[in-house]
Amino acid sequence: MNFLSHFYFERNNPDENMVMGVVLPDFIKNAEKGKNLYPAKEKYIFETIPSQNSILKGWERHVLVDNIFHNSDFFKLQTAALKQIILPIFENSPVKPFFLAHIGLELILDHLLTIDRVVNTNIFYDQLIKTDRQALDSFLQTCSLHDTSTFFKFLDSFISSRYLLSYQKIENISYALNRICMRLWDNPFTDTQVALLTEKLILFKDSLAQNYLSIFEDIELSLNVIRAK
Fold this sequence. Notes:
mainly alpha
């Protein structure tokens, strides 16, 4: 799941450090490509410091939600459906259809949450701003990210750009997908293909709009069951 989809489960959570933890794994992937952190190994340290323990709880929630989502029938069915919709535009493109369908589904979910005002993107950014940066820095260093300057440069840019507000426009989802693919392949799409991708995403979004919240409700139910154990 993408940033706003993860935030959905914390949209009423007043703990800004936990909100940061929920999106932190994806921030690390974007800021420190190839760097893997394993905070569970240092759990005993974080549990003694409330602010860092909140970040850890958020991180664990991210991993759990992603695991439930990626093993759901919804994910399997909708990625297969989107793959079939976008296949006609892949001629002479090096992009793997399943990869694009996977990321595309996640971005479309963020788009729908935004346009339906299920989550408030500005509140999400406000929570990130309020995060205890000293605690975040210590958390990352304990996880062996000893130079955190690149990460915080990314975080500052992410917050100041308010980039996720652009997800309200479907054409910006196509742009984002193209940019993601450019990290992996040279010249993944022509301008014409990007325009066609937008048309296909509109069709997919319309087919998903009536029942997309079901996956969030199913995940929330699973989380409640796990908490009750």
